[in-house]
Amino acid sequence: MIHLVFNTADIAALEAAIELDETLAGKVIEVKDDYAVGPLLDIYETEGYQARRDWWKNILQCSPYEEQLDIVDDKLTVHQLINALNHDENEVIWIWMGQNAHDVSGYYWLMSQFKEYQGRIQVLYLNNLPFLNEKGQLFYPTYLSQIQPKEFLKAKKLARPITLSEFELDPDEWKKLCMENEGIRFLEGGKKLVSMNIGCYDKEILSLLTKNAQKLPSALNNIMAKLKVKLGDAFIVFRLKALEEAGKLVFVGDWAKGWKDMVVQMPGGSNVVVEAEAE
What we know:
Layout: E1 2-5, H1 8-20, E2 27-30, H2 46-60, H3 74-87, E3 93-98, H4 101-111, E4 121-126, E5 131-132, E6 138-139, H5 149-155, E7 160-161, H6 164-180, E8 184-189, E9 192-196, H7 202-207, E10 214-215, H8 216-226, H9 233-245, E11 250-252, E12 263-265
Parallel strand pairs: 1-2, 1-3, 3-4
Antiparallel strand pairs: 4-7, 5-6, 8-9, 10-12, 11-12
Helix pairs in contact: 1-5, 4-6
């Protein structure tokens, strides 16, 4: 059994659940790219794949993740998974996804490549399902990492094969999104993704900046904690830079030195960093 997840934090959560139930025993593998953002046109072709890598390279420049681009190779992951299925006819894959655009986009990108293995690809979509938190209260998780390990033991009962109908229809839905090639995919509900403009969250991101100058890491922490839709910090910085180009904010510092000492401030606002947590 091979388990596939779409977030690094999900790996530890699922591995902890496996320790509680040996029937779940298997390797946990992460699909690393975030297919909810960025270009998708011709994603399965060399040119489209390279265009996407170039887009990420631009976004990750001067970030803490600049060197990680070379270790993200989901195409290789799929190749290895197919080899595993071909080598062992009893091997099965379980795709775990939470109710968020990141996971659902990853699911669409992934499953469309496994049609010939229909019956051996299971999906567990935790869509609008209640779980118990650490205090014993019901809540509706959007990410696997929010679920307690013992609660995964209930979730495993939801595993079902991806149907032949889904293998026919879901890739068409994904192809439509790829052709639209917008900057963001938004989850409306169920598995329904809609394409949105790359700057659709800019207004909300801007509203979460304070009037006082802030170190960039502190500003990011506040934005990520309050943003309604979860976006990666590198993507948020990418949009903050776009807002600077539009004259909506100002960055002070040297990008070549990384994020740590960069300061973000509103035009006409104080240029003194007053936040208590500033280092």
